[in-house]
Each structure stands twice: as structure tokens, then as C-alpha cells.
Design goal:
Length: 141
């Protein structure tokens, strides 16, 4: 048992984990920063004011980003590979918000006003596209 643990936790594996989790965390924070600056409503201000619609919509976008990002990390060949493909995943998620805003009129205002229907639909689209995005970002055979 100790030998198996020593084999699993070799210095290279631990170093790689630390690098990948740091890069993933940084990319996640960067996506969240860009996303919350791109949307007309102020997510964190609304969340601090206990607006569940803002939390639902932002949460869906974050999950929709994390799904393909996780798949990318799993299938990546390098940290650079992760960064490039995660930027593509982030771009898709940003486009999802733009497209959803075209379908749901006054989306940001509706989220700011606490409308659950708009937030749930926005989150659902973001997560659904996140799943599709993740499935499309697999290595070719």
C-alpha cells in the first residue's frame, strides 16, 4: 500500500497537479472577471444584495465554462494546450450570453430585477452549451 501511494504521489505528479490547478484557477478567475465585465448587469453587486437570479445566471455561466475546461485539462498534452483551448471554451461561453440576450429581450434588466425565469433559462443554456462544448473538445482518434 505504501509503495502504491509513493508511486502515485511522485514528485512529477504532484508538481504537475500544482501547475495545472494553479493554471485552471487562474483561467477560471479570468473568465469570471471577463464575463462579469461583459454583461450589462453587475453580478456581484446583485449577489451581495441577495438577488438569486444573478447568482443563478452567473453560476450557470461558470459551470458552462468549467465543464469544457475540465475536459480540456483531462485531454491536454501541455499547459499551453490547456490555455489555448480554455480560451476557445471561454469565447463560446461569452457568445452564449450574447445569443441568449438576443433571444430573451432585456435579459440583463430582467436578471437585475430578480426574474427567475430569465436567470434559469440563461443558466440552462450556458450549462447545456458547456456540455456540448466539452463533448466537442476531445482528442481525435
Amino acid at each position: 500500500m505504501l509503495d502504491a501511494l509513493r508511486l502515485s504521489l511522485n514528485a512529477t505528479a504532484v508538481f504537475d497537479f500544482v501547475i495545472y490547478i494553479l493554471v485552471a484557477t487562474l483561467l477560471f478567475a479570468l473568465f469570471q472577471f471577463v464575463y462579469t465585465r461583459m454583461t450589462p448587469h453587475q453580478e456581484f453587486k446583485l449577489i451581495r444584495a441577495n438577488n438569486p437570479a444573478a447568482a443563478i445566471a452567473l453560476g450557470g455561466a461558470l459551470i458552462g465554462f468549467a465543464l469544457p475546461a475540465g475536459n480540456i485539462i483531462t485531454n491536454s498534452v501541455s499547459v499551453l494546450d490547456v490555455v489555448v483551448w480554455v480560451f476557445i471554451a471561454a469565447g463560446v461561453q461569452l457568445l452564449v450570453f450574447i445569443a441568449t440576450s438576443l433571444v430573451v429581450k432585456n435579459l440583463s434588466t430582467r436578471i437585475a430585477n430578480g426574474e427567475y425565469a430569465a436567470a434559469i433559462y440563461t443558466a440552462s443554456v450556458a450549462v447545456s452549451v458547456g456540455f456540448l462544448n466539452a463533448a466537442c473538445m476531445t482528442p481525435s482518434a
